[in-house]
Amino acid sequence: MDEQIGITVFVGTEELSVSIDDVQEVIEPVPVLSVPVTHCFFTGLISLRGAIIPLVDLHSVLHESPSLFTNKDKKYIICRSGQKSIAIDIDSVGDTFSFTSDQVSAPANDKTVLQQLVSGQIRLADRELPLLSIARVIAYTSELNAKQREQLGYLAVH
Fold first, then answer.
1. How far apart are CA 119 and CA 35, in angstroms?
2. What's the pTM?
3. Class of 4-151 per CATH?
4. Which residue stretches of 1-157 are H helix?
5. What are the transmembrane regions (predicted)?
6. What whole-number distance in Å separates Cα of residue 4 and Cα of residue 151?
7. 3-state secondary structure 80-119
8. Predicted confidence (pLDDT) per residue in 29-46, tens digit
């Protein structure tokens, strides 16, 4: 079987999973450079060992309720999809777990933001976890930023 490894992350009251193949590292929060004329979900840019990486506030994207965790639990998870990297602001990191493709089902067919950002649901023995698609998070954030700029007359969306 094609065993894979996932990691759980917490955003508000939501428990999500990310494929460990998409994760470069998990870091403590670092200073953020805000970028004007961007969507509010796009927190800004961080510098990590000379690389400039966009930071997305997943809490805001998912319209989640206040965190059950303290600020000392807060982390940035650095992810990659193809040639693009992104830092995702999360409330806490959970455990790693193993799963196979047989345990992954299609995402729910609803129009919530979360369902637009997941590639499937992982069925574990005790629960189901949405599998976050880093490519979809990057595309979603890029689209929102482009629309924001277009509305303000800076850039046309193609």
1. 29
2. 0.87
3. mainly beta
4. 58-61, 113-117, 134-151
5. none
6. 42
7. EECCEEEEEEECEEEEEEEECHHHEECCCCCCCHHHHHEE
8. 999 999 888 888 889 999
